[in-house]
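In the lab's daily routine, each protein ends up as an entry in a very long ledger. A line of letters takes care of the sequence, but it says nothing directly about the fold. The three-dimensional part falls to structure tokens, numbers that each stand for a local backbone shape. The outcome of that step, for a single protein, is printed below.
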Amino acid sequence: MIKLYMLGIKNVSAAHFDHFMKRVSPERTRQVRRIRNRRDAVRSLFGEVMVRWAVNQVKPAAAFSKPWTRSEFGKPAFADEPDIHFNLSHSGDWVVAALGPSELGVDVEQVLPVNPGMAELCFSPAELGMLQHLTEEERLNRFYDIWTLKESYIKCIGRGLSQPLDSFTIMVRPDGKIEYSGPDIEARNYQFMLIPMEGPYKLAVCTKSKGPIEIYTPEMDQLLDMKMFQVNF
């Protein structure tokens, strides 16, 4: 079972911010304090809040007692907890955390105007060809479909920017079927999903194991009511 936790942060107050700044990891606190833009600081803070709250739903003993480690390419993981697979993403007014039984990646993006050259830099010839046959509005929406799917795949395999985005192709067929082609033969059997969202957002998930997905949208009050939310390492 893949679990997706989505938190809207548009109305995060100064009191909410201060409450969780006292309860996340020391590393996160230092990172957030270095961020000058308030909205970026909120997204960074609630990225950890959302992941730890989500893990508490499935493995409470690990949620607040384990620091995060990072792979060679920067992918986070819970120390000494090989069975906890998670990923997180944030953009605009949303923070999203994904948990599953195997490696996975998630990407959420606010749909904003894009420089036409961005696709040429990051997309494969097949993807560019698909965009050329669409109207301007359709092209922008499909750009973000492909972009989030590619980002979710990169995050799933944990190789970061060492894997060029134009080195593989992800096609979204008219019937909604999503197909990967490229050098990673195993990825042809991965599960790729586009999750509908309200407003100008695109959300994609990539998992190494296939299975159903459950979506949760906790309210801020639910996080605040969790008395044990306190990182203690």
In short: The mean pLDDT is 92. Helices lie at 14-21, 26-34, 38-58, 60-63, 116-122, 125-132, 136-157, 220-225. The radius of gyration is 18 Å.
